[in-house]
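User: Please predict the structure of the protein below. I'd like the answer in structure-token form so I can feed it into my own downstream comparison script.

Assistant: Understood. Taking the following sequence of 370 residues as input:
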Amino acid sequence: MREVFREPLIYKFKKTYMKKSFIFFFLMLTIGLVSSCGKKETASTTKTFIDESAIAIKLTAVEVGDYNLPIASSGLISTETESRLSFKVPGIITRIFVKEGDAIMKGQLLASLDLTEIDAQVSQAKNSLDKSKRDVDRSQRLLKDSAATLEQFQNLQTTYNVAQESYRIASFNKQFSTIHALSSGRVIKKFANEGELASAGSPILIVNTALQNDWIVKVGLPDVDWVRVRKNDKVKITTDAYSEVELSGVVIAVNEGAELVTGLYQVEIKVNPGNRKLASGLFAKVTITPTGASKFWSVPIESIVEGQGKMAHVFVLSENQKKVKKIKVEVAYLENKKAFITKGLEDVKEVITAGSAFLTENSTVTVTQK
């Protein structure tokens, strides 16, 4: 009876032990899986954090050299001796003998005023002169007879001199109450018509010497271009009228003073039209090739950030290769996807190109490619 009773107890004990072992093994397996997942999540989180904080950049070497860069500008074609003709005195216009586009010859009468008032002024001055002359002669005879004083004679002599100059002025004004051509050329513009009242000095006609083919183009250049231009520099000229033809030219004058309104320096270019017909007022694009080269630092355009006027900034890599610095530079030109710098990159060998638009001075970076 005792043996029969022990077997169930042993069996029950073994069953309980196996159940606890299974539960312990299951718990250990669960803890291992949770730990493994936690490590993977931590590693994944760490990897994501690094990618978000470091900005991938690309470095490009700064090129230094002497460049003979062309200067592009534009202006209107005119003539070297373009003149605005006007009357010396005000008056009513009686005749204008030419029209716009007419060819004129040197000395040709172009316009005239009504001379009624001007002739009266000349006659008045002549009468005053004659009277003063008679007074001087009479006073001189009286002075010889001691009937007049020296002071009286001198005063009358002064009056005569004044009347003489008044007559010269009136005669001069009459001479310039007509407009004559100073040289052969062509009428470009007519500002008034017959019967109008012309004020003194107001332009009536604009004429040029187009018959002599002395065409020029006047362009305005900023100071950075003005210092590079010299007299006799070669110029290429294109116009809309001859879009497929490139005219040649040469710099004939470089002005030393800037214009008050634009602040630009005027440069005159003589055009060689060849056998082609030109007209005053044609729009022309010019490309000046300076004879002397200048030193520039060239970088890709995408490295330039925060530009305003001539000043801009570029980013460079710091000494620890993880941070960046922003440097101020002066841009002279943008050409062929390159920016040419005059100041700021003297001690810089590489600039940041790709990724520069997303950078700040506190950014952390990683170099992906050079």
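That's the full token string. Confidence is low (pLDDT under 50) at residues 1-15, 37-51.
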